[in-house]
Write a structure and sequence with these properties.
The structure is a single chain. By secondary structure, this protein is mainly beta. It has strands spanning about 10-15, 25-30, 45-55, 60-65, 75, 80, 85-90, 100-105. The strands form 3 sheets. The chain has a 4-stranded antiparallel beta sheet, with no helix packed on it. Strands 1-4 form a two-stranded antiparallel sheet. Strand 5 (about 75) and strand 6 form a beta hairpin. The radius of gyration is 16 Å and the shape is elongated. The termini are close together.
């Protein structure tokens, strides 16, 4: 997906209960920014958590929104900037298994 600095991005993933019992799945969204030169930046930041209850065989779509503020970096002077490059949005389940990976390019 491509997005400008002022655009909100929607990311979704389909979750299915493949078991024979009802259960609850926790889907987490992490974001990694494109800066290579900043040793102090986090490896990834948690941007959202959704819990979904599913009956056996039930499927649900879990949606997250990434507003511009999620991709803003605050500098030493307190001003915000939007690093250029490829952002990685990673969705995981409650066991930290990678579910889906997206690339977001800031024009």
């Amino acid at each position: 997906a491509e997005a400008g600095a002022d655009e909100t991005i929607e990311i979704s993933v389909s979750v299915t209960n493949t078991g024979d019992r009802a259960g609850v799945e926790t889907v987490q969204l992490f974001l990694t920014d494109p800066r290579d030169d900043d040793a102090l930046k986090p490896i990834r930041s948690l941007q959202g958590i959704r819990r979904v209850s599913l009956a056996p065989g039930e499927q649900a779509v879990v949606r997250f929104e990434l507003p511009p503020a999620a991709r803003a970096v605050v500098g030493e002077g307190g001003g915000s900037s939007y690093p250029q490059g490829t952002w990685i949005a990673q969705m995981t389940d409650s066991c930290q298994t990678r579910v889906r990976r997206f690339t977001i390019r800031e024009p």
